[in-house]
Design goal:
The protein is α/β, with parallel strands linked by helices. It contains six helices and seven strands; from the N terminus they run E-H-E-H-E-E-E-H-E-H-E-H-H.
């Protein structure tokens, strides 16, 4: 397993996610970028897929919903965090119910971002470890984390 945490920033509006990229780099998270779901899919199916996807609400060929669908179908577990321009409680609920791990909005305060990133990374690393163990014993893929697991 790789030692460094990596995140894919899926976006077309660089102004929104540029601040997020800088904040993640401050947390020693390696970042890569994609502007479409098709680009993101290639990265998720590649030899070194990211643990996390921070997605804008809209990308060139889809939306945050499509990013969640990509994560659900990815060969290796990955958690999606939806990034919005502003806080919207109703949208937050919609995002979580659709299967995203979390929802964030600027400003990207270091301690809050660190908490979200740490929880999402811990969850996905446990799922990847369990997937590896299941594959060794022939049990196959594990489902995405439930709401209860996300809170752990």
């Amino acid at each position: 397993m790789k030692a460094e945490l990596s995140a894919l920033l899926l976006h077309v509006r660089s102004d929104l996610l540029q601040a997020l990229q800088l904040a993640l780099q401050g947390l020693s998270v390696k970042t890569s970028q994609a502007s479409s779901c098709s680009e993101a899919l290639r990265m998720l199916e590649g030899p070194d897929p990211p643990e996390l996807i921070f997605t804008d609400t809209q990308v060139l060929d889809g939306t945050w919903v499509d990013a969640i669908r990509l994560a659900e179908k990815a060969p290796t577990p990955v958690n999606v965090i939806v990034v919005s321009r502003s806080v919207d409680v109703h949208f937050y609920i919609e995002v979580i119910e659709a299967g995203a791990f979390d929802y964030i909005a600027p400003p990207f305060e270091a301690s809050g971002l660190a908490h979200v990133t740490c929880c999402a990374a811990g969850n996905v690393l446990r799922r990847r470890s369990a997937q590896g163990q299941a594959q060794q014993t022939g049990q196959g893929m594990l489902p995405l984390a439930s709401s209860r697991e996300r809170l752990a």
